[in-house]
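[Q] Does anyone have a clean structure-token version of this?
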Amino acid sequence: MLCKRLLKAAVLAATLVTAGAAMAQPDPVYPLIKRWAQINYHMQGDAQEKAFAQLAGDADQLATAQSDDARVLTWQGIILASQARAQGGLGALGLAKQARTALERAIELDSRGDDGSAYVTLGTLYARVPGWPVGFGDDEKAERLLEKAVEIRPQGIDTLYFYADYLHEQGRDAAALEYARRAEAAPGRPGRDASDAGLREEIRQLLAELGQGK
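[A] Here you go.
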């Protein structure tokens, strides 16, 4: 029931880890991030679904132990969103609701939403999940959340891309093109070369859909 672009939201959020946060001291989230990248980029089908389910279980254990850590909760939400995409079907909606709960709690604890990552993933969930009475989808809320992410990091390759992607899905292609071009010109992030490369490919695809392919 969830669109492929839900996974993109998780991909995008995975790129938001800052080098300082990851390297300054032992990071309990970092092993989850490494496994997430391996599962997301190098697995597919049933194997990917099972691996994400196991990863979500480990993320739940960490979130239970550190229930007031916004970054832990943000990553729990990211992983659950990824699991939802891999699983599909009615079960995916339940996972999306769990992801929403984790991300909303992360934002309560950190008004900047882990430098925008919680807002992006949550906004994309609201954009892609079916609306009432089936699910909690809400385009207006999705837009507010994605705009907040851009406000927090106005030069973020990821925040700009996902807002552009949302605008394109809404049929607002002139605005989508503006943000997609800004995303294309945005600087990369130290230590995130692989993630940025994948995101730049998504940007190229979006620009092509907007008639700006090279």
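[Q] Thanks! Anything notable?
[A] Residues 5-209 form a domain with the Serine Threonine Protein Phosphatase 5, Tetratricopeptide repeat fold (CATH 1.25.40.10).
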